[in-house]
Specification:
The complex is a heterodimer of chains A (853) and B (312). Chain A has 853 residues and is of the alpha+beta class. Chain A is 57% helix and 16% strand. Among the domains of chain A are: 209 residues, no CATH class; 212 residues, no CATH class; 155 residues, no CATH class. The chains are: A alpha+beta (853), B alpha/beta (312).
């Protein structure tokens, strides 16, 4: 029986390879995800191991919360350095200083695409984690060294005059050395590393009297013993003392955990969609071929084959396809990993990566998914093959006997739909963890896909009638025949369309969801920001900030009416989850921001906002069960705490989530008033363009600053969102391509099945071009059907989700352009899918119609 | 998506029309047709020099044992296959050198087909199947002709039925009507009774005969069925790729005997009844004699043979 299966696959090489490809792509997405995240993990592992390779023991601040890899900019008093140095067995000590800054080349701040530009002090040679390949360690003020990637990317060499952006303005410096960091072949992502002297570091980043860590070299004894002695000697609860090795391991682990909680599942979700689409194609292909081989199965039965043996041939075929596709998919996963990485780079997320490797876990999961999905999808058609009675040898036609269960199919579809919707709603409303809820929603969505696919065959006829109408009108015979053909086998057309539906539904969901986010974000800024200009940092996040001095500089610009800095930091609220806190100057903010007060609040609350008070955003109130009048305990990462009384509530989930305090309150938690934004308004009657120029000039000392009008700011945010969106589209494109393969497969099988018919059409005068068009229209009708179903389903999903998430700042907005584009994509998919089958059909020998079998 | 691709200029061979039709009123004429399949040792000669002219308004049957080349001859005459050597003209158009596109146009304009298996499109109803050739060539339906046609094939009350709702005979009548709807210069019928019982077969044969007699339709029919051939105005017998006999109308018994003789089975000489076997006896005597036209006008359409079949 295995031989029958293999022969059959070999005879239909094209169909076999298309089917394999459909599974292969899904498996490749899954294995690619694992390969990529493993690569990222090893990239970070390499960074941490390099950073700690010469360090026996490290004394680091103990952050009050959060992962250690997020920290690093907390400080310890420098009095600890001498205590450490005095410990027995310590041979060298590096009072490590680090900070985020900007490197400025030819007056332009270097963009780091989301990665940090990290400044650190040049360490004593025995403790240095970098290797100089040109020049030397900076040893005098005004001299820096940079890493190889940054130097090569920007064509920097020893002796070049550049500048650095610091907390105290821009400083001209000279490059004195170039160094390598990490092992060969690993990438730091887009990160820029800058080494400077300790004195410069202190001056530039206000690090007087503190250190970020104390790195220690011992005499070669067991570092753990040294660490224990140091721990005892300093006796400082705000510090952790670990061996370099443990520290590297812990930080690697923390990064890995972070990847596993966000990136891995997100990418796997896209792989899952691709696998799901592949499953539909397997199911459809096997259903069609089993129907076409009906007489062959009947013949096997008359020759004495048991049902089990018939099942065996079909399952064997599925097994061969599954194994072939999974093995090839694993290797293709390596390519997918590289492609995804360049995709991330293209949208500005340049992440450190190590070498390509395929972990045993990747192989096991890839094979299990690929083989499993193929077998499961082929099972129903295989069982139907066993139902062919031996007498069918003598019968014409390619119809299978209806299965005993077929009359329950509609009920089954209903059950699927009901449980799908149930899970979706449960996921939206339940109070479980975000991951659980997302999983519930995803499974619900998948069930709904199946339900729609089951139901689709009932709507194929009416829908094809409508969709086929224009081609029927425009292109008489070919259009007419295509329209009729697409209605001939509704289940087949439905399953083919369903594959495309899934991919497009997810695309549309993402598009609608993002459009909602975008419009509510844009609306929020439009509505609330009263000022004319927004000054932000290039990274746009909290990686870099603008010091308070920058605000003073802006204030001095002529015609500037008011300036309001906004500091944003992470804090722990009520010893619970991490949240956001905003620091503002209430009197300035009153002129810049139109708060959407809730609970009868007004701007008077801003006047009342003292050092012990806070305002809260609506979502925080909901998630923490807080009410106006309650008191919350807030902890900064440094360990500083403050009790704050909540005096008002506002709605602003997009911009100022969490808590808002006055700078007076901010000072209780943080030792600086660095701002992420400055909101600026010009004097009435003054030219905004003029003021913008002035502010721009005033920011000469702060190369990381970007001065934008409100409209420009909105544009750049929208641009960033769009980039993110395009990345998602690129990931989803794989599913759409798989569904395209599915359409090709169905059409090829259909053309084969209708050989005689097509021959007859040719004999009675149909031209090759008419036959091609006939196939093409059928393909397009099927594709549009999938497209329309996908668009409707995706929009409905997005509607359900966004209405539930409305309060979290995402409104339901239908992006008409994207939906039209989706429909066009569906049409293009239809046209492309038809190319090969149409060519085959046009080549049909007319004699085929006359030859009798 | 214009239709220009399907609308070629008139075939370039048009100027030969005058010449061809001047010589004779042949609808289809072949000259020294040979067809070789395969090459070298594996080469099989399906046709070895066939010269034949098919008269307008005649029903011509092509008969011969399996492998005689009769199907190949029909395929080449219909432009479905190309000869290795020799030429074919259809309705004055030299088709041997035509491009695919012109052949398509030729099929639209001049050629009709009836297949053994009815080859109707299952998703179209009877009427739509009948007018399919016109739909494909975007020719408007001639109402009067259509009405007359469906009257003849007796499908007036079946027009909206799908093929699956029609009997075998009705399906073949739809196929006949489809082949006639475009009023082709020549209609090729490939075993038109092959899939029908004798009564349905007879119906179809009468339709073909009627279309020749009433509309002057030219029909070329390949058949195994001696009875089917007996309604023809002319019967061509092929053996080993050449025409070995070319008769006028013949009785089915005569046809049967000729076929038997071609298969090498000679009638027992003295079986007593001594009638109608003379022809066969004659054929048998000089084995593989040079083909000789024996234009016997036996008034062969006796129509009494109830589906006598040479090979069934």
């Amino acid at each position: 029986m295995m031989r029958v299966a293999l022969r059959n696959l070999w005879q239909h090489k094209l169909r076999t390879s298309l089917t394999i490809l459909a599974v292969l792509l899904g498996v490749a997405m899954i294995s690619g995800t694992y390969v990529l995240t493993d690569q990222l993990r090893s990239g970070f592992e390499d960074i941490y191991q390099s950073a700690y390779k010469n360090i026996d023991v490290v004394v680091a601040p103990r952050p009050a919360f959060g992962e250690s890899f997020e920290a690093g900019l907390e400080t310890l008093p420098d009095s600890l350095v001498e205590k450490v140095r005095a410990v027995d067995g310590v041979t060298a000590v590096n009072p490590s200083l680090s900070a985020l800054g900007v490197l400025v080349v030819d007056g332009e701040a270097l963009q780091t695409m989301g990665s940090p530009t990290l400044f650190f002090n040049a360490a004593p040679e025995v403790l240095d984690s970098v290797t100089y390949y040109a020049g030397s360690q900076p040893d005098r003020s005004g001299e820096i060294a940079v890493n190889r990637d940054a130097a090569e990317a920007n064509d920097l060499g020893v002796g070049d005059e550049v500048a650095v952006g610091t907390r105290n303005g821009a400083v001209p410096v000279r490059i004195g050395g170039l160094f390598d960091f990490g092992s060969e072949g690993s990438s730091l992502g887009g990160s820029i590393l800058v080494a400077a002297t300790s004195d410069d570091m202190r001056d530039w980043f206000n690090l007087e009297g503190v250190v970020n860590a104390i790195e220690v070299k011992g005499e070669g004894e067991d570092p753990a013993a040294l660490a224990a002695r140091i721990r005892a000697a300093i006796d400082y609860p705000g510090a952790t003392v670990k061996t370099g090795r443990v520290s590297a391991q812990e930080q690697t682990q923390a990064v890995g955990d972070a990847l596993d909680s966000v990136l891995t599942p997100a990418l796997l979700a896209f792989g899952g969609v691709a696998v799901l689409v592949g499953a539909f194609i397997i199911f459809n292909t096997f259903s069609i071929t089993v129907a076409q081989r009906r007489r062959e199965f009947a013949m096997l039965r008359t020759l004495g084959a048991t049902r089990r043996q018939v099942l065996g041939t079909v399952v064997a075929e599925a097994l061969v396809i599954g194994v072939g596709a999974s093995v090839a998919g694993l290797f293709a996963g390596l390519g997918v990993a590289m492609a995804m990485n360049s995709l991330f780079k293209a949208v500005g997320a340049d992440i450190p990566v190590g070498g390509l490797e395929m972990a045993p876990r990747t192989i096991v999961i890839g094979l299990a998914v690929g083989i499993g999905i193929t077998l499961v999808s082929a099972l129903v058609p295989a069982i139907r093959a066993t139902r062919v009675p031996p007498v069918a040898t003598l019968q014409e036609g390619a119809a299978l006997p209806p299965s005993a269960l077929s009359r329950y199919v509609p009920y089954f579809g209903g059950l699927l739909a009901a449980s799908g919707i149930g899970l979706l709603v449960l996921g939206l409303l339940s109070a479980g963890s975000v991951t659980d809820r997302l999983l519930q929603m995803a499974i619900g969505g998948v069930l709904i896909f199946f339900a729609v696919a089951t139901a689709a065959k009932y709507v194929v006829r009416p829908v094809a009638r409508v969709l086929g109408w224009p081609v029927d009108r425009v292109d008489g015979s070919a259009g007419r025949l295509a329209r009729e053909n697409s209605m001939r086998n509704p289940a087949r057309t439905a399953a083919t369309a369903a594959a495309l539906m899934i991919g497009l539904a997810v695309v549309v969901f993402v598009a609608v969801f993002t459009a909602g986010f975008k419009s509510s974000f844009v609306d929020a800024i439009d509505e609330m920001a009263k000022g004319d200009l927004i000054v932000r940092t290039q990274a746009g996040g909290m990686m870099t900030t603008l010091p308070a001095a920058a605000g003073e500089a802006i204030r001095r610009v002529p015609d500037v009416a008011s300036v309001s800095g906004i500091g944003i930091e992470q804090v722990q609220i009520d010893g619970d989850e991490v949240g956001t806190i905003q620091g503002i100057e209430p009197s300035d903010m009153k002129q810049q921001w139109e708060y959407r007060w809730l609970d009868g609040g007004s701007n008077a609350l801003l006047d009342a906002l003292g050092p012990d008070q806070a305002l809260m955003e609506e979502q925080l109130a909901i998630t923490h069960g807080l009410r106006v009048g309650d008191t919350v305990a807030v902890t900064a990462r440094s360990g500083e705490t403050a009790e704050l009384e909540i005096i008002g509530e506002y709605r602003d989930p997009n911009l100022f989530a969490g808590l808002t305090v006055s700078y007076a309150g901010w000072d209780r938690l943080f030792d600086q008033r660095d701002a992420v934004f400055y909101l600026v308004s010009a004097d009435a009657g003054a030219s905004v363009t003029q003021v913008q120029k002035g502010v721009d000039a005033a920011m000469a000392d702060y190369p990381q600053a970007v001065v934008e009008t409100k409209e420009e700011y909105i544009d750049s945010i929208v641009k960033q969102l769009n980039q993110f969106l395009y990345m998602l589209y690129a990931l989803l494109a794989v599913s759409v391509i798989i569904s395209l393969l599915g359409i090709v497969n169905t059409l090829i099988l259909t053309v084969y099945e209708r050989t005689r018919e097509i021959g007859m059409l040719r004999a009675i005068g149909a031209s090759r071009s008419q036959i091609r068009r006939m196939i093409r229209y059928e393909s397009v009708i099927t594709a549009i059907m999938g497209g329309v179903l996908g668009i409707v389903l995706g929009t409905v999903f997005a509607y359900i989700v966004t209405t539930q998430l409305g309060a979290q700042g995402i409104s339901f907005t239908v992006p008409p352009v994207q939906l039209v584009v989706c429909l066009i994509v569906a049409i293009v998919v239809g046209v492309l899918a038809a190319v090969l089958p149409a060519r085959r059909a046009a080549k049909t020998d007319i004699l085929a119609a006359i030859h009798y079998e | 998506m214009s239709d220009t691709m399907d609308r070629p200029q008139q075939p370039a061979a048009a100027q030969t029309t005058a010449e061809a039709s001047a010589t004779t009123d042949a609808v289809v004429a072949t000259r020294s047709l040979t067809k070789v399949y395969g090459t070298g040792d594996a080469a099989v000669k399906a046709l070895r020099g066939v010269d034949v002219e098919i008269g307008r308004g005649q029903l011509t049957a092509i008969m011969g044992p399996s492998g005689s080349g009769k199907s190949t001859l029909m395929h080449i005459m219909a432009g479905l296959d190309r000869p290795s050597e020799g030429t074919v003209s259809v309705d004055g158009v030299e088709i041997t050198g035509l491009k695919e596109r012109d052949l398509t146009q030729l099929r639209r304009d001049k050629i009709g087909f009836i297949f053994q298996s009815f080859n109707l499109l299952p998703m179209l109803n009877a009427q739509e199947n009948i007018v399919l050739p016109l739909t494909i060539s975007r020719t408007p339906v001639d109402k009067g002709w259509f009405e007359r046609l469906i009257g003849i094939v007796r499908l007036e009350d079946r027009l909206t039925h799908k093929p699956s709702e029609l009997s075998g005979g009705q399906q073949q009548r739809v196929a006949v009507a489809r082949s006639l709807v475009a009023q082709p210069a020549v209609l090729f019928a490939d075993e038109p009774t092959g899939n029908l019982d004798s009564r349905r077969g007879e119906e179809v044969l009468q339709l073909l005969r009627q279309s020749v007699d009433e509309f002057g339709q030219t029909i070329i029919m390949v058949t195994h069925d001696a009875h089917a051939a007996s309604i023809s105005d002319r019967v061509l017998f092929l053996k080993d790729g050449v025409i070995v006999h070319d008769h006028g109308s013949m009785s089915s018994d005569d046809i049967y005997d000729v076929i038997r003789s071609l298969e090498g089975i000679c009638p027992a000489d003295a079986d007593g009844d001594g009638q109608g076997r003379t022809l066969a006896a004659e054929l048998c005597a000089p084995a593989n004699a040079a083909p000789e036209v024996v234009a016997t006008a036996t008034g062969g359409r006796d129509g009494d043979g109830a589906g006598l079949r040479a090979e069934r």
